[in-house]
Amino acid sequence: MRATLTAEVERWPVAGAFTISRGAKTHVDVVLVTASAEGATGRGEATPIYYHGETAEGVAAAVTALGAVDLDRRALMGALPRGAARNAVDAALWDLAAKLDGTPAWATAGLAEPKHALTAFTISLGEPERMEADARKAEADAHPLLKLKLAGEGDLARVAAVRRGAPSARLIVDANEAWTGRDVAAEAAALLPYGVELIEQPVKAGEDHLLDGVVSPIPLCADESCQDAADLARCIGRYQAINIKLDKAGGLTAALDLAAQARAAGLDLMVGCMLSTSLGVAPAFLLAGQTRWVDLDGPLLLARDRPGGLRFAGGYMGSAAPGFWGTVS
């Protein structure tokens, strides 16, 4: 059986601005893919990995060029390289299979039913005063786990400010490669008194050798440095955790492989996302029960979300309405 594919680009406004060390965004362009067969339709959403040079138009064109694919998701991994295009098609095929078989995606994947999970809430990069105010609001809105975007210079002041704004919150930080050339162990030690429990991607991807011999008092997590299972070898011994993002890995199918191999190697897991709607993070939500940290707040950072999507309240995310993605109505 083959599924017919269509792809379209959608633009979603960000709530305010989303700022990291590489720049700010006021909107995100995502690609919506539908896969149709035997009167049923599955949907998948992906966000292009801009730091890999992907664009929404390029991703949509890659999907359109396929035209139709077999329902075999393993075969898809040979038809498209890792990245957003394969993620969108893979997600649409998982959803289509659920509709055709009457079996939820989580059950087909051999996972526990995802009912709810605590997700991090992102504090965008800014001046310490702004980040303190954002953290104070986040704590007032009952977000117990915050993820801070850092930039290298001035990071200690930023973390201290967020801790003042949210004295009871758990903190993780994301350097987005901005600590390249800095003393990573010393930077981490300075953050230890503020209760930081994880540091994402301190150095540039491809320069992971800079972490050889580094003994950090806070676990280091590979993000840009770990796209899929092929990257695990260069992460082992340098990082203590990896951040699994479906847009990087090229879909839930590849992410399941990555998760299994990373756990076997003794690495802790985080599941993360790009800016996206609930449709984009729904497949990743299936992995939440296998990970130590969940960072799937993409829909919360948008001005609006898709109708019927995942539920967010009090720092937790919960299942979407039946039939939204990978579920059976």
Automatic annotation (TrEMBL):
Segments traversing the membrane: none
Superkingdom classification of source: Bacteria
Cofactors named for this entry: Mg(2+)
Domain Mandelate racemase/muconate lactonizing enzyme C-terminal as annotated: residue spans: 128-221
Cited SUPFAM superfamilies: Enolase C-terminal domain-like, Enolase N-terminal domain-like
Gene3D superfamilies (UniProt xref): Enolase-like C-terminal domain (3.20.20.120), Enolase-like, N-terminal domain (3.30.390.10)
Cofactor annotation remark: Binds 1 Mg(2+) ion per subunit.
SMART domains noted in UniProt: MR_MLE
Entry keyword DNA damage: no
Cross-referenced InterPro entries: Dipeptide_epimerase (IPR034603), Enolase-like_C_sf (IPR036849), Enolase-like_N (IPR029017), Enolase_C-like (IPR029065), Mandelate_racemase_C (IPR013342), Mandelate_racemase_N_dom (IPR013341)
EC number(s) per entry: 5.1.1.-
Keywords: Isomerase, Magnesium, Metal-binding
PANTHER family (UniProt xref): O-SUCCINYLBENZOATE SYNTHASE, O-SUCCINYLBENZOATE SYNTHASE-RELATED
Family the UniProt entry places it in: Belongs to the mandelate racemase/muconate lactonizing enzyme family.
Name of the protein described by the UniProt record: Dipeptide epimerase
